[in-house]
Amino acid sequence: TGTGLTAVKWYFNGNKELDKTNSHYSWPNSNSPSLTIYNVVETDAGNYLCFAENQAGSHFDSVILNVNLKPRVSTTSSIVTVLEHTSAVLRCAVNSTQTYTTVWRYNGLTLTTGSRFDWTSGTTKADLSILAAQPSDSGTYTCVATNSIGSRDVQVALTVQVRVPLITIPQTQYAVEERQNVDLQCDIEASEIDRVTWQANGVTLTSEFGGHFYFQTSYPSSWTKNAQYLKISNVQKTDEGITKYQCSATNIAGSATSNTAISLDVQYGPVVTVLPSQQLVLVGETVTLQCTSQSNPPTASIAWTKDSSTTVLSTQSTLRIGPIQASDAGTYRCTANNVLTVPGTGNKERTGSNAMVLTTVAPPQSVFLVSSSMETVAKGNSVTLTCNSLGGTNPLNYYWQFSGQNVSQSRSFTIQNIAINQAGTYDCWAWNIYGKRKADQSVTVVVNYVPLPVDDLVQVFQRELNEQVTFICFTYAMPALTDYRWYTKGSNTVIGRGMYYTLDMSSSTQYGDYECVANNSVGDSQRIGFTLSARGSSGLNTGASTSDTCGVGWQLILGLTLGILFFLLIVIIIIVCCCYFGCCACCKKQKETKTKITPEEKPLAKPFTGSLTSAVTRKDIDVSINGYREDRYVTPRYHLKPASSVASGPIIIPFEDENSVYTYMPEDVPIKTPRQLPPLQTFTEVMEAPRKHKKKKRRHHHYEQNVLPPPSNKSQKQEIEDDIIVIPGPSRDEVYA
């Protein structure tokens, strides 16, 4: 309203000025500014703005025009395609100025909301939701909206495609006891099924598995969601090793395999293994038995027992036995148990066991003598040695040893026609394949025999009248000698007793042959001959001994040695003096040339090595200087003891001949190569003597001085008697080695 309007304008929806020439409108003027719309249509609805102006100013105002129409219905997609068993959503948008209602029709039939179909009526969105669409749901769906003015609709075409089967696994692990049955479940969703298969670790199961596996092979024509089962009968532990059981389904759309695998928990009692299963063990050693148990669930406990006893030896998997005794032999059993926990069956205890056989073996444990440890037998007779043993594993064998050599391969050993050299110590051994053992005691065999001469040769002596000769009757015997008797040859009249027989040569009638007979408890020796003749007559000294012809005495040797040393010392002093004062031509020449020559030092005597007590006789052994000999035959020096002091055993009689020591042997004893008996200790004594020197330069010459025994005040007979020694007890081989 206003006066003097100069201009009037209308705008549509804010910025569009209406065209004055458009016949759809009646354009206003200054006298009538109102706007008239002819034949109103839906598009005329909106916001209209009126602008008026006069001389006083301008003003504007707006008005909204609502056009009442039928509901406007639209869809974003007129064609919808989905897979079966999925949800399908059909879009329907409604725009109405008035209250309206919406319905959906399928193939001319009005749908009702329910479990599978649902929509909201009276809102701008009336989308139809179809749950778990099936191929039969395919078709044309119409969305109809109605208000007071009228109705409008929109159509949507739905296609439900058949899909590959949908597989779900309701339980992924099954616990089952060994040798029981189990059903594995597989749920399959599909409109139709052509085939269902099962795989174990990727291998398709068939009837070739011998009825161990079973599953359905025929299916209903109308399929929605069905459960399929793989039946496993008589379940074995090996079935647990199949870690992945799967099912597959096939239809016209394709094949599908379950993404989730099924596994078996096959429960079983302990399977026990004992190593070793059997063993031979030597007594004294240690053995270790190992028990292993396989079970599901794991083994709860282990117990070791022996034979039928219920006493538990150990609860550890390892049983150590040792040191082994014979009583440890037997059967050792390892028992294990666990508890099965299969759902629906309760807890079940299961037990398993296994055993091993331990056999103990041993070498002979005790070897003892059955016969006496001391056997005395006369030469030529027989003796039997017997031993036995306990505690060894059969079969047992025996053998006897003498001087380190095997002499018998039996438990009893008989020595027939025993000889002197068979006297000594005998050892019994028992053995088997596991070892050997010697008897705790040895058998000492003593062979008794009559005295025997050391030498069968007649000993020859040469003496002049008024000289003295001593015969010595050398014999050996077992047991000890008890008596000596002396005869002239061919006579039974005893002319003397004792080991020594001495004659003072007062008459030529004393020349001739003499004989000695030695006696012990066994009997008499044969007659031992001696021949006495005048010096110069024929006869060879074959080893006879006298007390007054002992070779070169040590006093003479000492005197000769000292004389030689003194002579050499004088010679050296003269040579040194000549050189020092220039008396010698060679020394003068040395002075002229001013050359100093040191004279060569030479030993005054050859080095001498003395010996202490002999290892056998424990007496001094004569020493001879190299190169010195008295005559062709060196009178032997005997080391003896009187016969009365001989307890038992033979006598060793060494004598010297050209620096060698020989030993007389009995007739039936093999003679070995003679050798020098070693001393207990050797020594060399060195003496120093100062020499003259020039210009304070000292020189020393070293001489090895002979060490000789001091002179003795004893008589010759006393020396001979003191030098006698008897060695009882050793075997013949040892005595005459």
Automatic annotation (TrEMBL):
Membrane keyword on record: yes
Keyword Transmembrane helix: yes
The organism of origin for this protein: Sinanodonta woodiana (Chinese pond mussel)
Basic residues compositional bias, start-end: 691-702
Cross-referenced InterPro entries: Cell_Adh-Cytoskel_Orgn (IPR050958), Ig-like_dom (IPR007110), Ig-like_dom_sf (IPR036179), Ig-like_fold (IPR013783), Ig_I-set (IPR013098), Ig_sub (IPR003599), Ig_sub2 (IPR003598)
Name of the protein described by the UniProt record: Ig-like domain-containing protein
Lineage: Eukaryota, Metazoa, Spiralia, Lophotrochozoa, Mollusca
Alphabetized UniProt keyword annotations: Disulfide bond, Membrane, Signal, Transmembrane, Transmembrane helix
Span of domain Ig-like: 1-66, 71-159, 165-263, 270-353, 364-444, 451-533
Region annotation (Disordered) ranges: 688-737
TM stretches of this protein: 554-587
Highest rank taxon of the organism: Eukaryota
